[in-house]
Structure formats: C-alpha cells, structure tokens
Amino acid sequence: MSVRLLSRLGSAALVLFGVCTLVFLLIHLVPGDPVEAMLGESARPADREALRQALGLDLPLAQQYRNYLAGLARLDLGHSLLDQRPVAAVLAERLPATVQLAVTALLLALLLAIPLGVLAARKRGTGVDAGAMLFSLVGVSMPNFWLGPLLILLFSLWLGWLPVSGSDQPGSLVLPAVTLGTALAAILARMVRASVLEVLQEDYIRTARAKGLSESALLWRHALRNALLPVLTLVGLQLGALLGGAVITETVFGWPGLGSLLVESIQARDYPVVQGCVLLISVVYVAVNTATDLAYTLADPRIGVG
Amino acid sequence: MTEVLLQVEQLTTELAAAGSSGGGAVRVCDAVGFDIRRGETLALLGESGCGKSMTALSLMRLLPLSGRITAGAVRLDGTDLLGLSERDMRGVRGGRMGMIFQEPQTSLNPVLTVGAQIAEAVQLHGTPPRGRGRSGRWIQDRVVELLRAVGIPDPARRAGEYPHQLSGGMKQRVMIAMALAGDPQLLIADEPTTALDVTIQAQVLQLLKGLQQQTGMAVLLITHDLGVVAETADRLAVMYAGQIVEQATSADFFAGPAHPYSRKLMESLPSADKRHGALAVIPGRVPPLDRPFSGCRFVERCFRAMDRCGETAPGWYPAADTAAGTKGSQDASLDPATDASGHMVRCLLWENADVATVWPTAARPATDETAQPAGPASSAVSAAATAPRQAAQAQRDNRPPAEHPTLLAARDLQVHFPIQRGLFRRTVGYVKAVDGVDLDLRPGRTLALVGESGCGKTTVGKGILQLERPTGGSIRYNGDDLARLGDGAMRRHRKDLQIIFQDPFASMNPRMLVGDIVGEGLQALGIERGRAARRRVAELLEQVGIGEQAMGRYPHEFSGGQRQRICIARALAVEPRIIVCDEPTSALDVSVQAQILNLLKQLQQDLGLSYLFITHDISVVAYLAHEVAVMYLGRIVERGTTAEVLDDPRHPYTRALLSAVPMVERAHRRRRIQLDGDMPSPSDPPAGCHFHPRCPEALPGCAAAYPDAVHLSDSRFVRCVRDRVPNPEVGA
Fold first, then answer.
1. Domain with CATH 3.40.50.300 in chain B
2. Is the Cβ of A301 closer than 8 Å to some Cβ of chain B?
3. Element holding B721 (H helix, E strand)
4. Which of B184, B342, B442, B493 has its CA 20 to 30 A from that of B402?
5. How far apart, in whole angstroms, are the C-alpha atoms of residue B611 and residue B446?
6. How far is residue B473's CA from residue B637's CA, in Å, rounded to a whole number?
7. What is the DSSP code (8-state) at residue A223?
8. Which stretches are transmembrane (chain A) (predicted)?
C-alpha cells in the first residue's frame, strides 16, 4: 500500500517537473520577440528594454531557468504586468470561485447521473431507459456556450429568478453549475448504465439473488460499488478538467474563476499571469488524478495488495 | 418410505432465441419431472447444453432475462414455488432452498468481505436467538459458526477477509456457508467441484456429505462427472437434449445403464482397462432444441436406433432385470418418481422387453476391447482400431522405457519468474514455477505430466518449447541444447516441436479461415507454398476427420471437439516429432473427449509422434500414457511407467492424488487419503520436502532437506525419504 502510494506520488512529481519546464518555455514559444508581443509594435525601445530586464529575459536561458525554479520554490510566480501584484496572489484570489463551481457542478452531475444510469440499467429496454439515454445524448451534444445563454434567457431574463452573471448574489452559482454539470451528467449517466448492466451479468450477482436479496438491495449493495469503479476514473479526469477552469462557462457567466482569469490575461497579454494559470491548472489536474488513482485502492480491495 | 421433499412435474422452460426473429424459442427443459426425498442426494447428470443448469435455475426461478417457465409445477414440501409471488420466492431462495455454483472465483462479490456476504444471508433468513434483543452481535457469531462448520480455519479472522485473499477451495466453502445460512431443506449444487483440483474436490464433496448427515438436507447435485455421481449420489437422472431419459438409483444405474446414451457415455470414459482399444464415441452432436421433435431425441446418434424411433416419442418404461412388472405402458406422463426405487428409461427398446433382450451380451457396459461396439457411423479412427494392431501396440507398450531411444531430454530444467516490487521494480524473490525437472521424451510414446493447478506442469511444457525461456538446466534435442539456442537457431527446431492448447475456443484467431490457420505454419516455416500448401492442408483436415470443405469456414462454425481437431491439424501441419498436449480435453465433454483421445492415439501409432501430455485427469493418463511424472510445487516427486505409478504409487502425494479421484467402478476405488489445506505458493515453498506440511506420513526429518531421487527401477524414481531407507511399512 505505502509502496504503491510512494511510486504514484513519485510519478506525479515527475509529471509536474515536466509541466514546470514546459510552462517556463511557453514564453519563448511565442513567435518573434515576446516583449514586442506584450507591448505591441509601437512601444519605445527603452520601455522594451526595461520590461526585458524586469522579466529577466536578457539573461542566458540556463540562468533564466534556474531563477524560475528558485522562484517556484518560494511560490514566487512573478508579477502581473497590469497591476504589478504578485501572480500567486492573483491566482489565490480566483481559485476558490473555480473550486466552488467545479465541486458544485460535479455533485450535481453525480446526483443526477447515478440514479439515472442505474434506473436506465434496471429498466433496460423500456421507455425509461430510452428517455434517460435521450437526455444523455442531448446533454452531451449541447455545447456550453449555447446552453449557458439559453439558461440565462429563460431563468434570468424571462422568469427573473436568478442573476444573469457574477458571483456576488445568492443563487448566482446555480446557472453556471447547471450549465457545467449537464454535459458531465450526460456522459456519466451513460457510463453508469453500461457499467451496471455489465456488473449485473456477473456470477456474484447471481449468487446474491440466490441468497434471496431483493432487487434493490442487489443493485445498491452488490452492483453499484463494482459498477462505479470504472466511473471513478472518468470522474477524476472530469474534475481535473473542471478545476482547470471551465473557460467557456466562466466567461459566459462572468464567473470570477481561473478560466475567466486565463482568458482575461491572454487578451491583456499578461504573460506571467498566463504562465501562472497554466501551471496551477496543471498542478490541480495532476493532483486530482493522483488522488483518483489512490481512491481506487479504497474502493477495490484487490488493488494495493503486493 | 421416506417423504418426498421436492416434486418437479412437467417442468418446461424456454429461452427466447437470440438473433432469430419470429418466436424461435429454444426449449431448454422439456417436461422435466423428478422427486427428491428428504436427506437424499439426487444427481442430475448430463453433458454441456443438455439443460441441467437451466433446470436448476428454473427451480430457483433465477432464469436469465430471456428465459421463461412455460409449463409445469415445482412443489417444495407442499409449497407451489411457481405460484409464489416474487417477494415470497425471495424468502425461499437462500432460505429453504440454497444454491452453490460452479465457479467460486467469480461467484463472490470482490468488494465485500466474505463475512459481510454471509451476514446478508444470515440477516435475511436467520432467526435471532431469544433475549439478544436488537444487537447485531448474533449475526457475527452465526457467521463465524457457519465458517467453522464448513471447515475454514481461524474463522473469525477469515470473516474479515476479501474473496481474493482466499483460495478456490476456500471460496467454495464460503459459498456453502452462505447457502447453509438459511438452514436449507434442499441444497442445489451446480457443478460445485468442476473448477477445483481433485484433492480439493475430495475435500468439498466430503464436506457436503458430512453437512448433509448433520442437517438432514437434501442435495440436488448437477454434474457431468460420472465418478462424482457414483461416489456421492443416492439416485440419479440422466438428461439429454432438455429431457430426462433415465432415472435410477446409483447402484442400479452403474450396475447396468439402460438407455443407449447412458451406456455410450459410460463406455467413452477412458480407463486403464480400455487402453489397448479405441474408446466408444457418440457420433454427431446434440440436436438443436428450437424445433419440435417427432420421435426420440437421440435417434440420429443411436447405435440401436429402430425405424420407429424417428416417429414415436418414447414414454417411460421400467428397466427391470426381470420381465415382471408393468410393461408396455405408452403413457408418456407415467411418472418414474411414483416408483421410488424403480429404474426407468425413456427408450423404445424397453417396450415389452427386459434387460436380457435389450442388452444380451452383458448387463454392464463393455469395458474391454472385445466387446467394443464400434458403431457404423463412428469415426474412421475407432473403426481402424483392429485387433492385430492392438496386439502389436500392447507388445510395444510392455517394453521397458529404456529400450526406446530418447528424443528429447530435459535435465534440471528451471523456470523462475522474478517477483518485482516497488518504484524501481526491484527483484525481491522468485516464483520457482519449475525447479529442477528431469524428463525424457521418446518417439511413439506418451509421457503424462500430472499435477494440480499451480504445480508448474504447463510451464514445463512452455519451457521445453522455449515459449518461456528456462532460467536454468538443459534441454537436449537433436544435438543442441534448446535452452542455449538463440531465436534464429531455435527456428530450425520449431517445426519439430508443436503444442495443442486446452481451450480450443480461445486458441484460434476468430477472424482467420480454418484453411489459413492450419496452413500458417507451413508458410511461416517455409515448408510448402501455394497450391502444394493448400493440398497439404486439405489432407490434414481429412486426417483429423474434419474434411477439406472446412478450409473456407471460420472457427466459430465448429463445435468444441471439431475445433480441437483443427488445432491438432494445425500442430500436425509442419510434421512435428514432439507435440506438447496441454490439457487438450479438459474443456470438452466426455463423449467428445473420447473422440480426441482416439485421434491422438491413432496419430501416434501412424506417425510415431512423441507426446508430452499435461493433464490433471488420472483416467486419461491410465488410458493414454506410457510413462507418468507426478509434479508438486515445481518438482517431479515420482516418475515411472503408467502401470508402476498407478498400480503401486509410492510417494504420499501420488497416493493422495490417486485416492481423491472419484471412480465409477467400486472395485477401483482406493481408500481416500484426505489432504488438508491448499498447495502452498511456489514463491515461498516449505523448507525441505515441499509436500511435508500436508503429508500424512511426514517424518521429523522431512523439513530438513529436499529428498534425492531414489531409483526403484530403470524407469522409476521417487523423491521421498521413506523410500531412501528400506522401510518395512512402505513395502507392506
């Protein structure tokens, strides 16, 4: 168990190191001169030189890399070009909103997808099944940039129940979370259904039936836990993606999270913040996936022995 | 007379046929009827697809979604089970009627502890003792009690473990404990030991017998194994193509089976008595069950078929020894169960007849080659087994092995697999799958390698073929040491060394034509190409009894036995001298097994092939092998000619193994030597003799060192300390 934990953490650390290096190189991948890209062609040479020095771009590459890593170790990600605030502080300010949105959307998706998938599997081939799968198809097919405005139109503008955008009013979380959660729920419901159907064919389900268990005990106690194992992987991947900032949804609803920060800073050519965003998103992604892997150990007693 | 517990009448079950439109239902059970009395064991015997499992599932009302019971009645102690609501039926399942299944590996939920899984059954069907109130303690106590009852050591600790931490035999014990939780009146055991090794099978059957005596429950035992039936059942019913065709007490049945199908089944069992002839085969295959039958279902395959058999469906007739009794009843609904001890058969031969007229030669089925009724439709192989050939073969067989030249010699063969752990995949130990094996293969002879699962016998086969590279020792073949050859040099010998696998369903590419599968080796090794290769493939398919028209078809179009023939043709294509046969008949029914064994024997005589026959089935060894090597935990513990080893086993493990094999013939049964526990892991074998912790005859010195081989004759050695020093006990 501990060996597995260590080796998993070790490989996560390796991935993160690679990510850091790529993010560092990001600024050098911009075509032409990054400073010129940031300031525009009309900037004065003196200003360019000043920025170049401020960013340390005049130093040799190896030196830059060392400085960058040393900065990372102190959680120093540089300063925003817009207001000179430390990038770390900017990120820290935006992260909670993203976590709040992602977790809400995921819970919403799970609450919808698990009962729906199980129900569809249990009533396989009936109208219930067909209805659930139709929802799933529609949910997957609907893009967020279309569903979001549609929800705003209906609930905010026509019915006036919920705020249009922002995060400062009660209820402002609802529409972004629903928008984000719908697609996820659709994918998960499909997966839960397939997985439950597969597990229901297993010999141990027959054993449980032969024991005299009711169909619902069978489903919830024996089938679901086994069926959710493959779903868990998908949830992990999706949560990683959600935490990485739901760029479109956050932008549509003006939700002050990492996704909208990323869009804003790209538009403002605020390179240090872009770098910080990408780095943080990657870290979160890797961390969530590692955690998912380890959660498997808890869910399935066969893993983790030896 | 004892009271009837379960009454099954005219039970008819249909499965909606997959793929076929328009109500093409498959009638898997057709008017099945039998009784089970309190405390007795009734065996439902039949080959795969005969409907025996479907009958069991119908009784439990646990049919798959496509299944439906269309007629009949099932009464358990007066309760009409088919009339119960689903809710009430759930109270019966696991309560008055428990069931255990074939595959213990997959029949337990992997994510729940075994204790929790038994506790569920206790909670549903158990009654809390008075005065214990609502405390859940009694459930835990009962779980531990049940685990103890099925012979699981340290039950309190085991209850907290997950299924993957238990061996196969242990899991089946847990399944039994679960079924016992409701104090069942009837236990349905669907092939309960088929997936287990013989010594473990003996343990489980013994356990069931003991529990039955303690609790007085009745057992419906579903099996294909005649030996298991003979040793455990009070009465039996033979099923064929969805119908019961014969019912009798075990004693009556084994004294003289009445139905031609039952007789052929008995005759197709391999044994030492039959080794100089071909085994009886049943030609053709079970008819499809999606159409109505006008006459007897066995007519197309029956060697005693009469004109009437095709048109008149046989009713039940008594198969009595004397001509007395009610004869000539054409009433199909005549219930054999009404006559408790009666031997009843569904065959027109018995209409107005008795045993003397139906089976005049002998009441017992033929067990030697002189009474071998080779049916006109049986395969060319059995017809070819003529007397002079048999005599010559018998003579060859009796020559000591040393007089045959050695074709391939393995010395101190080792195949060790590293166990790797941790971040850097450090090797922390070795699984010594094969740990110092010596064996010799001789032209035209069969060496059987016998042992239980996990003993390393398959790895020996792979090691010899260099499919698994040996980590030590040598394999001398044709002047080369195969273990030291590079891949290129090994290719030259590939043609001589071929293999046939256990599972003919998994060992052929489903997307290749049979002709291409068989011909692939010819092309790969550059033996024949183009038209010559095609001609050769056609010849081979003809030789194994499939026919050249099979070339343009795909593997799924063939039955298991036919596929194994194709696999044999594939191995033969490159004209090998040695074939490793890795359990080639374990996945097949007895009657099909007989065909394959006949074919292998014939091919050996015609082509002088040398077989390394890997198996766990002692009766196959007795029938086919010239020499036997018995393996336990990576080493050969005893080796000798088949007669030497089977007639006079010397190693305690060999003796236990042989005694555990269920035998049809009472005279052949040995005193059971019960082995406790399971085979230890080959990654951490016990010190000294690997067998000593389970050995009933272990001496204090056995843990000190692995005993050296003691040669008892030119052909024979035993690795046991008891044979090192002359010991009066051993000789006795």
1. 4-233, 403-723
2. yes
3. none
4. B493
5. 5
6. 18
7. I
8. 12-30, 101-121, 133-161, 173-192, 227-253, 273-292
Handedness of CA A23, A29, A33, A39 (dihedral sign): negative
Q: Is B424 exposed, middle or buried (0-12, 13-18, 19+ CB in 10 A)?
A: exposed
> Three-class SS of residue B454?
coil
What span, in angstroms and rounded, lies between the C-alpha atoms of B165 and B445? 41
DSSP symbols for A97-137: HHHHHHHHHHHHHHHHHHHHHHHHHHTTTSHHHHHHHHHHH
Determine whether the interchain pair B423/A7 forms a contact, defined as Cβ–Cβ distance below 8 Å: yes
User: Which of A211, A210, A226, A212 minimizes the C-alpha distance to A121?
Assistant: A226
Report the run of H or E that residue B42 belongs to, with start and end: strand B41-45
Crossing angle of the two packed helices B198-215 and B652-660, in degrees rounded to 10? 50
Nearest to B121 among A211, A221, A222 (CB): A211
Q: Per-residue pLDDT averaged across A98-104, rounded?
A: 89
Tell me: pLDDT of B621 over 90: yes
The DSSP H or E segment spanning A187 is helix A174-200
Domains of chain A: 2-73 (no CATH), 94-305 (1.10.3720.10)
pLDDT single digits (tens) B345-371: 999 888 877 777 777 765 455 444 333
Q: What is the mean pLDDT of residues A102-119?
A: 91
CA distance linking residue B88 with residue A270, whole number of Å? 71
ipTM over 0.90: no
Over residues A127-150, the pLDDT tens digits come to 888 998 898 888 888 888 888 888
Mean of per-residue pLDDT scores for chain A: 84
3-state secondary structure of B3: coil
For B421, nearest residue in chain A (alpha carbons): A306
The residue among B517, B508, B507, B512 whose CA lies nearest residue B572 is B517
Supply the angle between the helices A2-29 and A61-73 in degrees, to the nearest 10.
130
> CB A266: neighbour CB atoms within 10 A?
14
A 182-211 → B contacts, CB under 8 A: 202-204, 206-211
Mean pLDDT, rounded, of chain B: 84
Match 């255990």 to its residue by tokens. Answer: B100
Helix (H, G, I), strand (E, B) or coil at B413: strand
Angle at B203 between CA B98 and CA B264, to 5 degrees: 80
Topology at the third CATH level for domain B4-233: Rossmann fold (3.40.50)
The superfamily in CATH containing domain B403-723 is P-loop containing nucleotide triphosphate hydrolases (3.40.50.300)
Please tell me what DSSP assigns to residue A213. Answer: -
How many other CB atoms are found less than 10 A from the CB of residue B443?
16
Q: Which helix (H) or strand (E) element contains residue A21?
A: helix A2-29
Of B90, B106, B181, the CB nearest to A202: B106
On whether the CB atoms of residues B126 and B182 are closer than 8 A, the answer is yes
Can you give the pTM of this predicted structure? 0.81
Over residues B659-669, mean pLDDT: 80
Pairs of CB atoms within 8 A across A/B: 83
Report which secondary-structure segment, H or E, holds A234: helix A224-243
Sheet of B446-450: strand order equals B497-500, B578-582, B610-615, B446-450, B627-632, B635-641, B716-718, B710-713
Are B108 and A204 within 8 A, CB to CB?
yes
The string of DSSP codes covering B11-38 is: EEEEEEPSS--S--EEEEEEEEEEEEET
* Residues found in chain A: 306
B contacts of A222 (beta carbons < 8 Å): 109, 112
β partners of residue B429: B419
- Two tokens, residue B286: 């079970």
pLDDT of B669 higher than 60: yes
SS3 of B605-643: the string is HHHCCEEEEEECCHHHHHHHCCEEEEEECCEEEEEEEHH
